Amino acid sequence: MSSTALAEYPPRTQGNGLSMQAEQAASGTSLWKEGFLERRGHTRYGLRALVEFEWIDSGVPHRGRGTTRDISTRGMFIYSDSQPPSNADLQVEVSFRAITEAPPNLRLSAKALVLRVDPAGSQDALNGFAILNRSYNLHNGLTSIDKRELKN
Q1: Which position has the higher pLDDT, 3 or 129?
Q2: What is the value of pTM for the model shown?
Q3: What are the CA-CA distances from residue 22 to residues 5, 7, 28, 44, 150 (Å)?
Q4: Phi, psi of 25 (to 5 degrees)
Q5: Of the four, 10, 18, 49, 100, which is 20 to 30 A from 43 by CA?
Q6: Which pLDDT score is estimated for 67?
Q7: Which helix (H) or strand (E) segment is 23 a member of?
Q8: Which structural domains are found in the chain, ordered by start?
Q9: Which phi and psi angles does 14 have, rounded to 5°?
């Protein structure tokens, strides 16, 4: 998939336009994806964007960089060699400048919680971690486009 395309993840079904989660919730069935029960209530988009993040562990500040695998208003999955611990509070900055359709300087700033850390399963695999946004601000450097405090 090109980094310039926003693809809904999981993709919408053909037909009535309801998401797979909505259709399956209405029918009383569960959504299984790659062997795992899909419980997310927000649409995720497969999107590669640059991420910078920081956290404090035992009073020591840490920084890292990575790329998103997917993103939603509630969180994201980040590939990175820097691995914050589970339950760490994270400050995240996502840059969309590599996406040609995005306005210049479009950024997402978020305060988040690390939900899980996925170490690479093999030498060719990538390390990554999932975060839950507690708040976010979508902005262009000067003006806030969408700013929200989220309830857990």
Answers
A1: 129
A2: 0.70
A3: 24, 18, 10, 14, 21
A4: -65, -40
A5: 100
A6: 94
A7: helix 20-27
A8: 7-38 (no CATH), 44-149 (2.30.110.10)
A9: -75, 160
